[in-house]
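Page 47, continued from p. 46.
Same chain as before, 319 aa.
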Amino acid sequence: MTQKSGLIADIGATNARFALSDGKTYREERVLKCVDYPGLAEAARAYLEQVGISEVSAGAFAVAGPVTSDAVHMTNHPWSFSIEQTKADLALNHLIVMNDFRAVALGVPHLTPEQMRNVGDKIAPQPHAPIGIIGPGTGLGVASLIWTGTKYVPVPGEGGHVTVAARTQREFDVLKTLYGKYRHISAERVCSGKGLVNIYMALGSLEGRDDLPERSPEEISAAALSKSCPICVEALEMMLGFLGVVAGNLALTLGAFGGIYLAGGICLQLGETFFESGFRREFEAKGRFDAYLKDVPTILILHPYVALLGLAAEIDGNL
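Result:
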């Protein structure tokens, strides 16, 4: 263990992915379940114990939620913490805490061609053009990359909470059903693991299926992939259609000819079903701007820890 070792972590609502970094690379990655620990500091200590490390000099953490002050509250998980107190608890000289999709954005420029796959036609990204990043997991993350003239800089945001719109009567009926549960139907309510459950339950209600069993996102996806449950099949396809619409909105907003990059676990886990879905069709379905979006590449990130790539690069100057 050298003095140049740092602790990096990508903390979502379900999993906390930890690793050690000595600069621009990382090692000893582990995935811990957030529910197993009362807080971030306890999870970090457990990781360090697992890898046999007693202390580190610096940390860089990405969390699923906005980071606007010392007090951080995760959006879809009950963990809350003070950045300064966590720095003291872990005896760190430096601690950077950022939104998780800022870290994903930082990692995108470090991806190799083998760690990406085009969705739809293989369209080459335009050099130095804006890039959008969107990713459905437990929630829905959104960020962008803007070229400054010398490098890309990340612009995090909370684009997962934009208002979602229906395009068909069926979608309108689903959203109308969800209005009974939520006061605002955001993209995350229908484009995420939780969103998949929302759509599934709404479709069951519309079909009068009082006997419809409760299912987790993983169970809905599995039943859809096996085609053993027609409502699961429709729910998954509708979710991916909504995702295409939201991703297309992001591309129009940014002029993202550098590409829209898809992160998060859901798309990757669906395998070929994602590539065969209506995602790209709905991405391009913008009326007078259909042709505009045909020139915007959509790219699935295959790297399982892209946020750790970004955090490793970010922590380098603080080691």
